[in-house]
Amino acid sequence: MNSELNSADLPNAQAVFIHDDTEVLSTAVARRIAALAAEAIAARGVFHLALAGGETPRRCYEKLRHHTIDWNQVHLYFGDERCLPDGDASRNDSMARAALLNHVAPPQANIHCIPAELGAIEAAARYALELESVGKLDLVLLGMGEDGHTASLFPDNPANTRIEAAVPVFDAPKPPAERVSLGMGTLNAARNKLFMVTGAGKRQALEQIMRGVALPAAQISKAEWHLDHAALPIMNVT
Length: 238
Ligand code: 6PG
Prior knowledge:
CATH topology of one domain: Rossmann fold
Oligomer: single chain
Strand order of the largest sheet: 1-9-8-5-2-3
Number of strands: 9
Bound molecules: 6-phosphogluconic acid
């Protein structure tokens, strides 16, 4: 793990780690998650972890299966969910179950899925209530889309400025258009925030963030950014 960029390159970042490729990044982030889990459980007897959706985290989740984590003390949440029927293969919780949860089998009561099948408004209201009893999340895992969205907070979408713990999202440019997301405030309030960003498709958004464009991902403060080389912008060296 090395850090060619420094935090100054990514405004708001707590630390930036550059990895050779997705495999190396996934190994390092799985190790980091296990360490944060041990730290939280030792300090407070519980680890509240919000999982990221999309494809990037899949390999990290597969690797996390092999770490020694007391899953009975881990409560799992989701940074966002797509409004699709429960069990739909395209849901973020379906990916997390296939890559990790079905293999480590935390108590069912510890898996807090977003009931997105109820529709964005009802699901966000219920999830916001559920989150109220949690307080701070210990770690929020995040991806970033090619447009700089994170969770389901997309550029210029009214959901970004809502103050509820969980917010309904409509007109998302990444299908499905209807989603539920943790609110920006909830994401920022987490004890630790960790981005996994890989692939050349993310270069442009990263470059915009480095130039100070306030894309949604850039509005997450004091996050650890884990990037692979392919995602690094080819900045004009002045
Ligand atoms: C989703 C995710 C979304 C994802 C980014 C990156 O529902 O798609 O929550 O925020 O993290 O779009 O997706 P990839 O990891 O697939 O590039």
